[in-house]
Amino acid sequence: MNKNMYLIRAVEIATIAAYKFIGHKDKNAVDFAAVEAMTIMLDNVPIKCRIIVGEGELDQAPMLFVNQELGKGKTLTYDLAVDPVEGTYPAAYNIAGSIACLAASTPNTILKLPEMYMEKLFVGPDLQDAINNEDDFITNIKTMQKIKKHNDLIGIMLDKPRHQKIIEKLHDLGIIVRLIGDGDVLAAIDIINKEADFVYGIGGAPEGVLMATLALSDGGDIKLS
């Protein structure tokens, strides 16, 4: 089997394991099933992987923790960023918006970030030139409008109290804002699929790493701060 297929299979197994807990209103059960399944799968493949972004250090996760090595290989093949269930609440309550995530890269090429909140702006390939890391978010938005010749911009944001003021500013600029309850990474996939123009918000750093790998692999761009 192609070594990349082991990783794809790990995501599939995590999804299958979590499925039977969908709608049970138990986020922990959904998450544990996916984490356990992904861990067992990765620990029994003929390659070696190291977790760089995992289930987190704050909750002292017993599986898929940072620096954990998995697999039967003798030399390190991949560094991984994983989120076996991104969007545990939607899965637990049988609402659309959950995804199993795994990003792989050659060793020592994934940035290790602590569990913290960070500002994230993700765009697709057609707006790569709009992001300037020295500019603030609103300035970048105005640049996007110029590139799109002031056609309607569609943004995706988490529906959180911390975002209300910026949502009001976007409405003042004529931006269409699609609000979601969970799922930064799935929202970023929507951008790559051209269902919207950008994802913006303050959220978890691990999801930021996964979004950055998506930008690198599919031609988008991301600003993290």
Identify the strand order in the major beta sheet: 7-6-8-5-9
Molecular shape: globular
Strand percentage lies at 15-25%
Number of helices: 7
Low-confidence stretches: none
Radius of gyration from CA coordinates: 18 Å
Task: Give the H and E element order.
Answer: HHEEEHEEHEHEHEHE
Q: How would you state the average pLDDT, rounded?
A: 91
Account of the 3D structure:
The strands form 2 sheets. Strands 7-6-8-5-9 form a 5-stranded mixed beta sheet, with helices on both faces. The chain has 225 residues and is α/β, with parallel strands linked by helices. The mean pLDDT is 91. Helix 6 (184-192) packs parallel to helix 7 (205-218). The chain has helices at 3-19, 27-42, 88-92, 137-147, 164-172, 184-192, 205-218; strands at 48-53, 69-70, 76-86, 99-105, 117-123, 154-158, 176-180, 198-204, 221-224. Helix 5 links the parallel strand 6 and strand 7 (176-180). The longest helix has 17 residues, at 3-19. The protein contains 7 helices and 9 strands. The N and C termini lie far apart (39 Å). The protein is globular. It catalyses: beta-D-fructose 1,6-bisphosphate + H2O = beta-D-fructose 6-phosphate + phosphate. This is fructose-bisphosphatase. It comes from Spiroplasma ixodetis. InterPro entries: FBPase_class-2/SBPase. Pathway: Carbohydrate biosynthesis.
